[in-house]
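Q: Give me the 3D complex with fructose -6-phosphate.
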Amino acid sequence: MRVIVESSPEQVARMAATFVAALVRKKPTCVLGLATGSTPLGLYRELIRLHREEGLDFSRVTSFNLDEYVGLAPSHPQSYRYFMQHNFFQHINIDQRNTHVPDGRALDFEAHAEQYERRIKDEGGIDLQVLGIGSDGHIAFNEPGSSLGSRTRLKTLTSETVRDNARFFNDPAEVPRLAVTMGVGTILESRRCLLLACGRHKAEAIRATVEGPVTAQVTASALQLHRDVIAVVDEDAASSLYRREYYCEVEQSQQALQAGKLKFGA
Ligand code: F6R
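A: Here is the predicted complex, encoded as structure tokens.
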């Protein structure tokens, strides 16, 4: 796993945006996997800026979101569809028909989940999946104990996640207990994963993800099995990493190599 440590959440957003923007420029018909929550907000702001100021073109991009709360209509201000519309889609030139968010009010969740997986396949698979991480190490809503081969399905949220997400709701009792979420197996099929984390409250989850054993108790640790994962984290989220210095040395060597400045010893 490539680990990039940035000085601030703003720098994390800028760095993450360079990866997304490079893909959109190289492959205008790319398929993006998107996340909600606080962490990717800076990334979306930066991509909106690149769209406005540099003409970054999303007109042929397709997107699939990771998850949605069960029971919330797309117009509900806490639904993930609403979040995506207001924080990203309506500010760029993506074709709304090419944006996909699981339906939290599907009548038959099993059929809906299968259809969601099929849609992803029909579009040729996800080129780049943006991921946040829960303080319990979850990716999407794959809570501890989720199968590392899991596919899109219903999942019960842990009380820790319900507590973490209560900050977005007027009343903690309103936080849905169920979500429809891509599985760990679905995520691992993405061609590249971009994992973002900011803040000290994510430090332990990041340590377990990058340096801990691969375990269903920390579903993000399954990313160790993926050949192309880039974790972009701020200093606080990196603060529990044992090999932090080494990850920084790897980045320095990489930059020197790209700039043609690497000195080879005798
Ligand atoms: C959201 C998602 C979740 C969040 C995670 C972190 O679509 O899939 O896994 O990424 O709960 O949330 P924040 O960024 O709010 O700390």
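A quick observation: Residues 126 and 189 are 8 Å apart (CA to CA).
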